[in-house]
Amino acid sequence: MKVKIVAIITVIMLLFISVPVYADTPIPERPADDNWEYWVILHHPIDDFLYISSNNPIKVTTDEKALKVYNCKSYYYDGSKFVYQDVETGEITIHMTPVIIYQSNHDIEYEDGSGFFFLRPRESHLYPTMKGMDFGTILRTFSVGLIPILGCLILVLSLRKAWAFLRGQLTN
Fold it and tell me: What gap in Å lies between CA 43 and CA 34, rounded to an integer?
């Protein structure tokens, strides 16, 4: 009986203790050999990421189904880094439905000049912070919350034992 109670309390504690969890899909670094002024990282259905750079601002069609670029370089993502694909000259229309922009270094506008994408680049502060932490910091943080819970558990078990002892003494 006691084993069942301890097991149930342990399961409840594991379910309700708050443990910080971080999920992040990092966007890969831009290619080192690209020095064109404007760039954008897009969602690509096959390669996950597509990197487009140009010397001219990149625009989006008003129906939001394509990018308009004048003279551009494109790179595809091979799983670890961006790999050069090709250079296109003239006005290029990149059809992608929907156009999902992950990151850009400039404001991307519609063809008519109104705004479309003004997000700042995402930065993950978790990795640099964790690199600067001492080994075992997460375990210490976790144990700080676990100590009061274990104390309460021991207190409840002690009170139960004391109550059973007193009840036994008073009934005899």
Answer: 19
